[in-house]
Amino acid sequence: MSKPIKQIHLAAHFPGVNNTTVWSDPNSGSHIDFRSFTHFAQTAERGKFDFLFLAEGLRLREQGGKIYDLDVVGRPDTFTVLAALAAVTDRLGLTGTINSTFNEPYEVARQFASLDHLSGGRAAWNVVTSWDAFTGENFRRGGFLAEDQRYARAESFLAAAHTLFDSWHGDEIIADKDGGRFLSTGDAGRFAYQDEHFDISGRFNVPRSPQGRPVIFQAGDSDHGREFAARAADAIFSRHGTLTEGQAFYADVKGRLAAYGRRHDQLLILPAATFVLGDTDAEAADIAHEVRLAQVSPATAIKFLEQLWNRDLSDHDPDGPLPSVDPIVGENTIARGRASVRMHRDPIAVANEWRARAEAENLSTRELIIEVTGRQNFVGSAATVAEQINTLVQEDASDGFILVPHVTPAGLDPFVDTVVPLLQERGVFRADYTGTTLREHLGLQPAPQLSPLR
């Protein structure tokens, strides 16, 4: 029996708190002006994408007390932007990254329930933890939590939020003949949640929203993160965009679902992916090279180098060889808890791997950093990129992709204009929306139904 053809899920990531944006490109626009968000969102909706993803940045990235040279200035409040976008879009899902380390369940649940109402059932929450001390300094708790503590709090946070979302029932709302809705005298919105992290009780003041609960996304790649996603998420972001790595991640995470009584199709795997398009594959490759040079400036290359070496390398020549000294092993004092540092469990081994590669390929420090931090997933003509995407999805390396253009806000336009039609011709991507809620776009089961209004 032949394998059924999978439908591809596509989303658009408005870049900002990352090193993919090339703000120096003459076509790059503002990351604060609402017209940028409007253009980006409406382009994604024109392409029939599932959702727009807006990352949250609670503080500009910095290292050694200085802002990264490639960070765009500012990041408006996530809920404010998504609520405004709900008014200028009709079907596009609206996904926001909101962390569980420095917020409280009641306020976040109230904001997402409100967004789900305002958008007609298009809200989604990317549940993340905050891992760096710089961000922690902005909040009363300060510092950063160890990985196991962060995920324990996140799981408790989400469970508390679900208690709030589920605190309203259909028999607690009375509809009059003119369509108005009034509270009954029952226990509408009454809730109580208590564990080692939270002790809250009261009444939740936002009625049940169109989706019941927002779609839940998770972005962790650690074992804790994968288990959290298998237990509680509707979709998981991934950084594994190649066939071999993608298939391994896909099989691992999907394989964890049965332990929680969940089916294979109840969790989507959606890697983030960059793309560079050209009239030919060769032209796209040339453009991609120039983009990488712009994304990894000499100063940025040194910042990446310091994160592994755990020492001040501001005097190091980015156009020279890698440092001859070894990384400092132990507590990282350069990045203070940044995830990129903790990815390297054995800094000296990684440094030696980098040295061997640099010597074999005759690479300078900056050239080596460009290679090891590369995130260009799809490079080629529209036909080539459409083929690459479809192959990865059909071969179970992913269920789709969250596209991250390097130019904002118009960087998504070429993809929508040239690649999407080719996917539609193949019959692997929708020609139009068939549902109104994000859960419907993603093929997910609705949240448990409540009794009807009376």
Number of helices: 15
CATH class of the largest domain: Alpha Beta
Please give the largest β-sheet.
8 strands, parallel, barrel
The CATH superfamily of the largest domain bears the name Luciferase-like domain
The overall strand count is 16
Strand order of the largest sheet: 1-2-5-6-11-12-13-16
Helical percentage: 25-40%
Oligomer state of the chains in this structure: single chain
Specify the CATH architecture of the largest domain.
Answer: Alpha-Beta Barrel
Distance between the termini: 48 Å
Topology:
Elements (H helix, E strand, L loop, with lengths): L8 E6 L19 H13 L4 E4 L7 E2 L2 E2 L10 H9 L6 E7 L5 H15 L3 E6 L4 H4 L10 H19 L7 E3 L5 E3 L6 E5 L4 E5 L11 E4 L4 H10 L2 E4 L4 H12 L13 E6 L1 E3 L3 H15 L2 H12 L29 H4 L4 H15 L3 H8 L5 E3 L1 H13 L5 E4 L9 H14 L11 H5 L12
Protein name: F420-dependent methylene-tetrahydromethanopterin reductase
GO molecular function: monooxygenase activity; oxidoreductase activity, acting on paired donors, with incorporation or reduction of molecular oxygen
Family: Belongs to the NtaA/SnaA/DszA monooxygenase family.
